Amino acid sequence: MYLEKPLSATISMAVLLLSLAVFSVISNGFVLGIVARLKKLRNYVNILIANLALVDLLNALINMPTYLLYGVLEVSWFKGKTLATLCLLFYRLLQLLNITSMLILLVNVFLALTFDLRYFAWKTEEKAIAIVVVEWLACLVAVLLSCLLLFDINLQDSHVIIYRQVYFTKSRFFSAAYLVPVYRLCDSLGRPGILLNAKEEITGEFSSIKLLMNMLNFYCLGP
C-alpha cells in the first residue's frame, strides 16, 4: 500500500502541477498556433519544433491531469485495470516521444554543422513531416511491445497507483532498453565540443534545445 501524504503536501503538489500544466498548455499551444497560422513559418525546423510542442501539449492535457488524480489527490474511484493500462500507455508513449523529438532536433543541428549547405539543400517540409510520422509510429510500436507482458497483470479493482507500482517492478527493462540509450545519445550530441566551430545563431538554437532536454531529464527515471 502507499502512504497518505499530509494535506499541506497534497495542496502544494496539486497547485504546482496545475500551474505547470496550464503554463505548458498556453506556451505550447501558442507555438502550435503560430506555426499553423503563418504559412511562411512552416519550414523543416519549425515542423520538428511544433512536433515537440504537440507532445508537450498532450502530456499537459493527458498525463498531468491523470497523475493529479491518482498520484496527488489519490481519488478513490480512479482504479481498475483499464484506467491503469491507459495511463501507462499514454505515459510511456509521450515520454518516449518527448525524448526522441529532442533527439531529432539535436541530430538536425549536428547534421547542419557537419554537412552545412548540402544538408540545408536536403531539408524540405515533406521530409520533416515524414520524419515525424515515422517517429510516432516507431514510438507507438516500441511502447506496445514494452507493455505486452504487463497486460496479463490483473489486480482487480486496485487503485491505479498500486498498478503502477507493480508495473514499475515488472518492467524496468523499458527504461534500460528504450529510454536510457536514447537519452545517452542526446547527451553525447549535446556536449559543447561538438559545437566548437558553430555559427552563433545555430549555437543559440542548440543551447535552447539542450536546456529543454535538461529540464525533462526526469522522464528517463519513470516506469
Number of domains: 1
- CATH class type: Mainly Alpha
Helix content: over 70%
Mean pLDDT: 76
Beta-strand residue percentage: under 5%
Task: Report the radius of gyration as a whole number of Å.
Answer: 19 Å
Uncertain parts: 190-223
Name given to the CATH architecture: Up-down Bundle
Secondary-structure element pattern, one letter each: HHHHHHHH
At the fourth level of CATH, the homologous superfamily is Rhodopsin 7-helix transmembrane proteins
Number of strand segments:
0
**Tertiary shape:** globular
Q: Mind summarizing the main beta sheet?
A: none
Measure the end-to-end span: 18 Å
CATH topology: Rhopdopsin 7-helix transmembrane proteins
* Secondary-structure class: mainly alpha
If helices are DSSP runs of H or I spanning 4 or more residues, what is the number of helices? 8
Question: What does this entry look like structurally?
Answer:
This protein is mainly alpha-helical and 223 residues long. The protein has a single domain, classed as Rhodopsin 7-helix transmembrane proteins (Rhopdopsin 7-helix transmembrane proteins). Helix content is 75%, strand content 0%. It has 8 helices and no strands. The longest helix has 35 residues. It starts with 6 loop residues before the first helix and ends in an 8-residue tail after the last helix.
